[in-house]
Amino acid sequence: MGYVKFLGTAGARFVVARQLRSSAGTWIELDGVQMLLDPGPGTLLRARKSRPALDPTQLSAIFLSHKHLDHSTDVNIMIEAMADGGLKPRGTLLAPRDALEGEDPVVLRYVRPFLKEIQVWEEGRVHEVGPVRIHPVRHDHGQVEAYGLILESSEGRVGFLVDAKFHPQLAGRYEGCDLLVLNVVMRDWKPEVDHLSLDEAARVVDQAKPRLAVLTHFGMSMLRANPRLLATRLSEQLGRPVLAATDGLSIPSKDWNKGA
Ligand SMILES: [Zn+2]
Fold it and tell me: 32-59 burial, b if ≥16 CB within 10 A, otherwise e?
């Protein structure tokens, strides 16, 4: 059975720099296909220390939503690990153009031959990894090119609303998801921050109506306020299940794919 496993739940600079929560990425298995989203600092370590240990050579794809450090630091080592130390070219990297080209690409050129394929996210295009179809959703997230993802499989529709500045059309893009994972960095809205606040996340969940919503990628203000408590309150307020992710939390697809 498929699952989504949070190897890390840290967001924002201080929580990442102090490792108050792990900043490793999210491991996903759907229809037997293993994929990794946003390999932040510590991803390889957390994957190998995970119980049961996760095997990078079983990955079919690595998704990079954007090139900020807390999402991309381990991308090069994970590409090499996916290819069994570079011995067997393997897998697909899906990434924004500015992670690959321009002044400050985060994907090293010398690891690129370890990949079978590199695809550049294109809004409106449907990317495919085996039987899993991936719809990128362009986000407004400051100076970098950033995308959220919707993964479609026989185990349901799983949305990852990664780093984004709120706009009123955002929720509409994530309607129809069975599971919706939202990066909620801050509790209170701040005009200068390109991230969702808790209230904005609530608006998205209320409109998009996923069967299950999961909050993750927490900054200091979220951690101080106890994410589990905030998620419980949100659940009561919205009348639908909302969870706060913890490091190592694995959610099996039966928890969101009720039709199965
Ligand atoms: Zn970011």
Answer: ebbbbbbbbbbbbebbeebeeebebeeb
- Segment holding 160, helix H or strand E: strand 156-161
pLDDT at position 201 over 90: yes
Domains of the chain, by residue range, sit at 3-255
Contact of 4 with 26, CB cutoff 8 Å = yes
Rounded to the nearest angstrom, the distance between the alpha carbon of 49 and the centre of ligand 1 is 26
Residues 99-147: pLDDT tens digits? 999 999 999 999 999 999 999 999 999 999 999 999 999 999 999 999 9
Distance 223 CA to ligand 1 centre (A): 18
Dist. CA 259 → ligand 1 center (Å): 34
3-255 adopts what CATH topology? Metallo-beta-lactamase; Chain A (3.60.15)
